[in-house]
Amino acid sequence: MANLGWNPTFQDRKFSVEVHILNFDEDIYGQDLRVEFVERLRDEVTFHGPEELIAQIKKDVEQAKGILGVS
To answer: Which of the residues 12, 39, 41, 47 could staple to 7 if both were Cys, CB 3.0 to 4.6 A apart?
Structure first.
């Protein structure tokens, strides 16, 4: 699951790419990755705070798991 955008909830003015690998817990910072896009989940949204953003990310994770067929 990936986020490509400006992080408007935190007024970030730099474009960023953030990738969350489902069911993966290893330190791979600094490693090269190949990312393939399967389906778009939603448009970029400005949330009213971190708690609202976290709640939406949890929904996004569940939706991505359903699309990818992982638990």
So the answer is: 12
Distance CA 41, CA 43 (A): 7
Task: Find out whether 41 and 70 touch, Cβ atoms under 8 Å.
Answer: no
Q: Quote the distance between the C-alpha of residue 54 and its chain's center.
A: 11
pLDDT tens profile 36-62? 999 999 999 999 999 999 999 999 999
Torsion (CA) 24, 27, 30, 36 in degrees, nearest 10 = 0
Token pair listed for 44: 């970029």
Catalytic (active-site) positions: 18
Which amino acid is it at 3? Answer: N
Phi, psi (deg, nearest 5) at residue 19: -120, 130
